[in-house]
Design goal:
By secondary structure, this protein is α+β, with helices and mostly antiparallel strands. It is 21% helix and 35% strand.
Length: 173
């Protein structure tokens, strides 16, 4: 699977374009529909996955709604297959009550939205809560340490790096 990251909008939100067998999935369509479409290289777009509904992650979503299938926490199963993409939906509440992460087990890749950032976590005062965030962190700690995490903002990281360097993974807060 190929992963292309676009940094879009005033909050520099990561929008991911995933490609597999000339098929495209878009994760968190941020802002700038035209830029996203330009970066799909005219390949078949199967749909858009939304990790949570904060404005900076869905700015271009209205442009996609009429033409493509939109996937979010309410219409994804625990195990999913969309075209050639096979992944798991993980409930990772805390930043928001509707937060999900998308885990591609075969590729060892996790798209965390605003749940996990490099050496940081998402704020819990924007529609989520601390108790859910703590539960989500404990849940994700059980995954393979060598998975790569692609966050909603900033650079990618690994679970191993977060276990070593993320305060919220190692302290009782």
């Amino acid at each position: 699977m190929k992963i292309k990251r676009l940094i879009l909008g005033s909050l520099e939100t990561n929008c991911y374009i995933l490609e597999n067998n000339n098929e495209i999935l878009i994760i968190d369509p941020a802002d700038d529909y035209e830029e996203i479409i330009k970066n799909t290289d005219n390949k078949k777009i199967l749909g858009v996955i939304v990790t949570h509904y904060h404005f900076d992650h869905i700015g271009a979503l209205p442009n996609f709604k009429d033409k493509y299938k939109i996937y979010d926490y309410s219409n994804l199963l625990d195990d999913n297959k969309i075209g050639s993409f096979k992944f798991k939906r993980l409930i990772t509440k805390g930043h928001t009550d509707d937060s999900i992460s998308i885990y591609f087990e075969k590729d060892k890749v996790l798209f965390s939205g605003d749940f996990i950032f490099k050496h940081e976590i998402g704020r819990c005062d924007l529609g989520g809560n601390v108790a859910d965030m703590k539960n989500s962190i404990e849940y994700i700690k059980k995954f393979p340490k060598d998975i790569t995490i692609y966050p909603g903002h900033g650079e990618k990281t690994t679970l191993e790096d977060e276990l070593k360097n993320n305060y919220y993974f190692n302290h009782n807060w």
